[in-house]
Write a structure and sequence with these properties.
Blueprint lengths: L4 H23 L5 H15 L2 H21 L5 H46 L4 H12 L6 E7 L5 E7 L5 H11 L5 E3 L2 E8 L2 E9 L9 H54 L1
Antiparallel strand pairs: 1-2, 1-5, 3-4, 4-5
Helix pairs in contact: 1-2, 1-3, 2-3, 2-4, 3-4, 4-5, 4-7
């Protein structure tokens, strides 16, 4: 169990920074610590988001400033260079974390759309495909995913829920949208309707429980694209079922007609 991966990087980065600060205070400030203070934000940039890396960078700059003001051995020019260099290293680490997390998020979104396309395009039971879509969404782009379908009388049917039933607030939003409400957007929740040919087929909900993450414009576009693909798959399955039912009724009608023609023919022969 233990801490989640991002939290481990947080703890490691702050621990390294505090150890360096303790060494700095114990041994006296040294310009070699310019690089050492930059280790903590660089470390954070490898495993956390840009916000956390930025926070670690600010802490590193603050501790560097404390070191400068409390050190008698460091003159003013060296002290300014010391603090400025630590701040620049923290900023560069923050930018690197932002680029990395953006690329990783884009790759996860592309992977989810690819997996959803495979599941929804395979045919078969559309509910099984929706369950596969929900499983692919977690934990790649969200911490939870739920899909509700709307019946002819407005009753709701749970098609998928990963890892389990959503919290009450998300559950209520999902029901509202599935029954015809507008999409509902929040920093940690996206509830998108499943609609095809002006019919409300249900709703899809993505949720986040981690304080490190927020949904952005790209995530909203992804959720809308995913909901659209799910709705098309459901509508196609419904059309196929209606076509098969019509074919079955037509076949039965032809059978009745053939039987009636045969009875008329037999009666004519008997007369």
């Amino acid at each position: 169990m233990g801490l989640p991966r991002p939290r481990r990087w947080d703890v490691a980065a702050v621990a390294v920074l505090l150890v360096l600060f303790a060494i700095d205070l114990a041994t006296g400030s040294d310009l070699l610590l310019i690089v050492a203070y930059g280790v903590a934000p660089l470390l954070a940039s490898f495993g956390t988001g840009w916000r956390t890396t930025g926070a670690v960078g600010l802490l590193a700059a603050a501790l560097a400033e404390i070191s400068r003001t409390t050190s008698d051995a460091m003159d003013g020019a060296n002290g300014v260079v010391f603090v400025a260099t630590v701040a620049v290293l923290g900023a560069l680490a923050c930018v690197a974390a932002l680029v990395r997390t953006s690329r990783e998020a884009a790759a996860r979104r592309a992977g989810l759309l690819s997996a959803a396309g495979d599941a929804l395009g395979a045919g078969g039971d559309p509910r099984a495909a929706l369950a596969a879509v929900a499983a692919a969404a977690v934990p790649g782009v969200a911490d939870r995913c739920a899909i509700d379908l709307t019946g002819p009388g407005g009753e709701l049917e749970r098609a998928a829920a990963v890892p389990g039933a959503p919290p009450p607030a998300l559950e209520q939003a999902l029901a509202r949208v599935a029954r015809g409400g507008a999409l509902e957007l929040a920093p940690r929740a996206l509830v998108i309707p499943l609609a095809a040919r002006d019919d409300r087929l249900g709703a899809l909900a993505l949720g986040l429980s981690s304080s490190h993450r927020r949904f952005g414009a790209e995530d909203r576009a992804l959720a809308e694209e995913l909901a659209g693909r799910c709705a098309v798959a459901l509508d196609n399955a419904r059309l196929v079922a209606e076509t098969r039912a019509a074919e079955s009724e037509l076949h039965d009608a032809y059978g009745l007609l053939e039987g009636w023609v045969q009875e008329v023919s037999d009666l004519a022969k008997a007369a």
